[in-house]
Amino acid sequence: MSETPRLETALHYLRGSQRGASDESPGLTVVESALCRHLSIRGRAESPGFADAIRSVTGMTLPTSPLSCESSANAHIFWQGPSEWMLVVEQQGSETMESDLCKALAGEQAAVVDVSGGQTLLTLSGPALAEVLQKSSPYDFHSSNFLPGKCVQTTFGKAGALVAQLEDHSVALLVRRSFSDYIGRWLLDAAAEYGVQISR
Amino acid sequence: MPALEVNRLATGGLIDRQQRVNFTFNGRSLQGYHGDTLASALLANGIKVVGRSFKYGRPRGVVGHGSEEPNAIVQVGSGAETIPNLRATQVEIYEGLEAASVGGWPSVDFDLMSIVGWFGRLMPPGFYYKTFMWPARFWMTYEHIIRKAAGLGRAPQERDPDLYDRLNHHCDVLVVGAGPAGLSAALEASRTGARVILADEQQQLGGSLLSTHSSIGAQSGGQWLQETCEQLASCDNVTLLPRSTVFGYYDHNFLGIVERRTDHQVPSQRSGARQRLHRVRARQVILATGAIERPLVFAHNDVPGVMLASSVSTYINRYGVAPGTELVLFTANDSAYQCALDWHGAGRSVVAVVDSRAAPDGPLVKACRRAGITVIAAHGVIDVKGGNAVRAALVAPLNEEGSAVIGSARQLDCDLIACSGGWSPVVHLSSQTGAKPLWDKEVIGFLPGDSWQAECSVGAAVGSYTLLACLAEGASAGAAAAARAGHGNGESMFVAPNTQEQPEHPAQALFLVPHTRGTSRAPKQFVDFQLDVTAAAIELAAREGYQSVEHVKRYTAMGFGTDQGKLGNINGVAILAQTLGQDIADTGTTMFRPCYTPTTFGALAGRDVVDLFDPERYTAMHRWHLEHNAQWENVGQWKRPRYFPNAGESMQEAVDRECLAVRNSVGLLDASTLGKIDIQGSDAAEFLTRIYTNSYLKLAPGRCRYGLMLKEDGMIFDDGVTACIDENRYLMHTTTGGAAGVLAWLELWHQTEWPELDVYFTSVTDHWSTATISGPNARNVLAKVCDDIDLAADQFKFLDWREATVAGVKARIFRISFTGELTYEVNVPSHYGRHLWEALIAAGEEFTITPYGTETMHVLRAEKGFIIVGQDTDGSMTPQDMDMDWIVGHKKSFSFVGKRSLSRSDSVREGRKQLVGLKTRDPQRVLPEGSQLVNDPNQPLPMSMQGHVTSSYFSACLGHSIALAVVKGGLSRKGEVIYSPQADGSVIEAEIVDSVFYDAEGERQHV
User: Fold this and answer.
1) Which of A42, A109, A117 sits opposite B769 (nearest CB)?
2) Strand locations in B522-656 (E)
C-alpha cells in the first residue's frame, strides 16, 4: 500500500458550518483542533516519581489540585480525578511520547493509554460563549467560579464533556468521538441566535 | 366596527394611549391599548361574561387582575402555536391577538352545561366519583365529554413550530417577586456584589406599586420604582427577569422559572426563543411573592361584576379602566376602602361601602366619609341580583361576629360589587419546599412555615402589608441573604423614607357571609370559582365524614383547578374548620405543588427535541453507511447499520444475501460500537479472573479468551473476548449496550472491594474503530492490505491477536469470530476508521465483499448458537442455564463474582429454563420472538408455560427457520415436540434441538 492513509477528525464534515448571523464576528466560534495525541494517564499523584516522570517527558507540571489544568504552547494536561489525567498534545513532535512516558513510569503504579482516536478537542470563543455554556450545562461557568486553568467534567446537552477555561479565556471542550456529532449540532443550535460558525 | 370602550377612563393608567391594539375575543373584534392585558381590555369594552363555569355552566366574569384569576381562562392563538389555560389577566394584548374562552362548550352564550346547572342540586360533591365512575367501561366516554364540556383547554394537534430553550443559572440571591419588598431586597443584595436574580411574573417590575398611588419619602411610588429599576439594570451582577414565573421550588434551592419572551409580541415579529426555562441554583432565596386579596363568600357571589377590591383599583390606576358605573364595596377590613376612593376619584359613583365590622373608623374609612361616601357598618352583602351581570346587591345587617343576618335585607342597585375578605399571603413556593403554612390569627392568613431550604419570605408574603414595612423587610433580608451567601456584612443600607403611615384598624375574620337561609338552603355561595365548589358542598363533605383538609380537597375538588385555589382555598379551609368546630390552625391548609401557574411542555422540553432529543452516537464509518443505504438499528444510543438493502430488496432478501455472502465468500461488519476497556496493572490478570467466571492467569500475550461476567446473584451480566496485550495489559471487549455499565462495574469492585489491586481501567471504545472481515475469503481480503505479518493458519491462529499494518495504518487484528467463519477483527484508531473500511471494501471487491449489518450478524451467530446477553438472557440466567458450564472455573483459588450464588438451591433446582434450539415443523414458519411455549396447545387456560422464544430467524444458509429458546429442563428434552400458540389462534409446532445449528464441530473458524 503506497497510498497515504486518509485521516478524518471527528467533526471534519461539520467544518465550515454556520448558523444565524453570518457576519465577520459570530457570537461563537468553534475550532476543531487538528488531530492531537490524547493520552490518558493513570497513577498515584502522591508518588514523587510519578509527577517527576510526567515532568521529564512533557516538561509540564502535573496538576494535582482538583478541577485544574496545565497548559503549554502545544499541550494541555487536564485533571480528571485523583488518579487520572488527560494529556492532549500536538501530534507533531510527540511521536514517541507514549513510549517515553511508559519508560519513564517503569516501576510506578501507572498506566498510559492512547485514546487519540476516541476524542476530539474543540476550542470555543466569542462574546456569546458564556451564555452558550449556560445553555449547555448545569455547571456554574460564571467568571467568579470558572477561571483560566479550571477544568470540569460535566454534562453538555445530554452528552458528557470536559470543559476547561484556557488562559486566553477561550474554552476547551474535550468530547468523545461518538458524541461529537451531537455536540457539534448542539452548539450550532444553541448558538444560532448569536451567530455561530465551526471553522474550516 | 369594534365596540366602544365604554369603561375606559379619559386619563390615567400605565397604558400607551398612542398605540391602539386590535384583537378578537370569541370571534368579536375589539380594541385596546398597548399595555393592556386581555382582561383590562375586555373590561374596558364592557364585556362582562368571559367564560362558563366548570360544573354548573354559570356565566362568569373577570374577578382578579393577576395569576389568581379563576374565571377568565382563555385559549390564545390558533393552530400549532395555540396555548390553552392562560389567565386573561396575564395575557398582554398585541395587534391581531386571537383569544377565546376555554370554558363553555359549544359557546359562551349557549352553554350545554348550564342545563346541567338546572340539576345542580343533583350534583353534590363527589358527583363525578359517584356517577361517572360506574360502569367503569363508560369512563372513557364520560371523560371525553366532561373534559370538553368543562373546558379544560385544547392542546395543539400540530408540532409546535416555536423555539424554546433553557438557561442554567447559579446565583447568590434569587428574589422572587418585584414588588416593593422584592425590589428593596434585590437592591440591597446587589450592593454587596452578590450575584442576584430578580424574577417577576408581570410584564413590568413593580408589583403593587404599579396599581396604587403611593409615595416613598418625597418621591412618588412610580418615581422610586423607575429609579430602582434603572439602578438594578445598571448592575452587572443583577439579572432582571420580567414576564418570568418562578413556578417550582425544588430541593437544594433549585428553582424553575419560565420566561415568556415573545408571547406578548405580534407573531410575525417574534424571533428567538418563545419561552425560556431558567434553571436556577440559588445559595439564598428571598420570597417576596406578595399577597392575594381574598374574596368574600356570599350568595351568587359569582355573578359577573363581582370582583376583588384591589383588582378594581388596579384596573383604574394601571389600565385606566373602570369596570362599571355604580359600585358597592363590601369589605371586612380597612384596606379595601382604597378601592372606593379610587372609584370615587375616577368620577364614578360609589353607592355605598358595606362593612361587616360594627364600627369601622380607620384612616381610609375616615377618608371615604370625608369624600362623602356612604359607609354602612355592621352589614353584609348577602346576595346578588343579576344573571349575566350584577344588577343589585342585597344588603342586610349582621351580628357582631358576622355569623348571622339579624334584620331584613335591602336592595342597593349597582353594576359592580367589589369585595375584600382581607389578604392571603402567597405561600405557594414556600409550601413547595415542604414548609407547612401556619395560621396566624393577627394576620388572618396562613404564613410560610419553617423551611429546610435556604430561604426566607418578606413583605406581604409574611403579612406585612404596609409599604414601609415591605421596603424595610426587603432591605434587611436582601443584605442578610447576601451575607449568608458570602457577600457583605449583612447590614442593610436602607434608610426609612420620611413617610407617615397611619395604622389600619383591625380587620374582621369573615369567611362565610351568612344568608337569611342556612348554607345548605341558601343560593350558591361560591368558594372555588374555577371548579364550582360552594360553601354548602364543603359543609356537606364534613357531614359525610371528611375531616382532613386534604380529603375534603379531593372530595369537593376545591383547589384542583389550574388556579390551584389561589382565591378560594383559605375561605374553604375556614368554612371546613367552622363546620368541624375546629380552630383554623388545627384544620390547616393543603400543600401546594409545582407549577405555580400552568407551564408549557415546550419550555420544559427546551431544545431537547427532534434530532437533539437524545444523543445519537456514530462510528467513524457512519457516513459511509449513510451513503450506502444502511437501515438502522438503535443499540443503546448507537446507530448501527441493521442491513444494507440493494434497490428493491426487502429486509429478508437483504439479510439472506448478506448471510450467504459471509458463509460463502466474505462480509464486512462495522463492530466499532463494541465496548472496549484497556486494563493495565500488575494485578490486571488477577482482577479479570475475579470478575469473569473463567481464569486469565495463564492467558499469554498475543492470545484472546472469551469470558462471561456475572452479577453477585450468579446471573449473566455481560460477555466478550479479552485479549492479553502484554504481561500487565489486557483489552476487554464488552457488549455494545453494556459498555458503560461494565466499566462502572469494574470500578465499583476495584474501588470498594479490592482497592489493593494494582489495576487501572480506561475506556477505549471510541478510540478504536473495528472492521470485522468474516467468511472463507477473509484471509484473502486481509492479505491484500496487510503484508507485514504472516497470516498463515498455523502462524496466526484462532483466538490469536497481532499488531500489524493494515492499509498503511498500525492496527490490532483479533482472530475471534461471532459468525463461526474465519474472521479477522481489524482495529485502527478511529480517525482512520473510514479509511480502513474503504480499503477493505476495495480489497474485497474481487470476492464480492458484502457489508452486513446487525440483523445478519444476529442470524449468523444464532446459527452457531452464540448467545446475545440481554436477548437470550434476561438477568435471570446462569451460565448453566445457557449450557455454558464449560466456561465456569470451579477450581479457581480466589472466588469470582457470582460464584457463591451458582450453588444456591434455586440455581441448581430441576426445571430451570435452559437454552435450546427449536426447529419448526414447517421449515418456512419463523416463530415470533417472545412466543410462549407449551407442552399441550389444547389444555385449558391458563396454560402451563414451559418457556419462550428468545431469538428467531429464517436461515438462508440452512434453508429453514431457526430459533433459540429457553425451556424448562430443555437440555434433557431434546427431540421432544413443543408448541407455541399464537395470538391469531394458530399453533406453531417445533422440535427441541441443540442450540448449535451450523458447523457444530467449529471447523470453519479454525481454517
Assistant:
1) A117
2) 526-528, 533-534, 631-635, 638-643
